[in-house]
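User: I'm new to structure prediction. If I give you an amino acid sequence, what do you actually give back? Let's try with this one:
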Amino acid sequence: MFPWLGRGCPAWWSARLLGFSRNADLVITPSKTIARYLKGKDGALDPVPVPNGIPVAEFQTGDPNFLSETYGIPKGQIVLTSGRLGLEKNLSVLLRAFAKIAAKTDANLVLVGDGPLREDLRQEARSMGLADRTFFIGTVPPDKMPSVYAGAHLFLFTSLTDTQGLVLVEAKAAGLPAVAVGELGVKDMVEDGVDGYLCRNDPEEIAQKASSLLQNPAELRQMSDNAKKNAQAFSRESCAERLLQCYDSVIRRGA
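Assistant: Good question. You get back a string of structure tokens that encode the predicted 3D arrangement of the chain. For your 255 residues, that looks like this:
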């Protein structure tokens, strides 16, 4: 079973994917976690993790006033999440964590993206008394995302299925520390205790880590600096160089 495909994935499909991997000259995965998983399934495989690169510099030029001026979001501490509003993103846990964060801080939550659970999540937020502190702003044009990140202070991510979690890299590039559930590829995107925190799938733990950061400006600032620095490893240039090295190794082996 490939965990990121879900429990409903037929065994024959998993076997087919493994068979395809065995016939390749080189297998490239988006994260170390997936590389380890494949190698655990077949020790003869030696996958090379190469994440999808992003234009790091572009995420450091956003307008910090964009959220307030465009969506009327109150100025102050903003907790951000971005992605499809679907079951796989585990957003009920995120809302329950934010309810605890809201009880300790004056932060507001901004959810970027759309999906089948949007209205259900709105209702869930209302039932928690968070209607005036949660902002569902829908999809945002890619060229405006740097400004969305620029207006936030902390990134929350509770997905259980991401093989990489590219939004975590974008957040890092913009200087946002992340508090995330440490599942699958997410574990390779956040350096625990350095540029964010990895947590269990537990609203209490997520809230405790997030609230601690929001209430400690010096630590938040240090993790922000670390996030920007560590994002360089995910730049398009760095990842392209690693890909070229992979292709070169295959060519040399076949020569």
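You can read the tokens as a compact description of the fold. Here is one thing that stands out. The mean pLDDT is 93.
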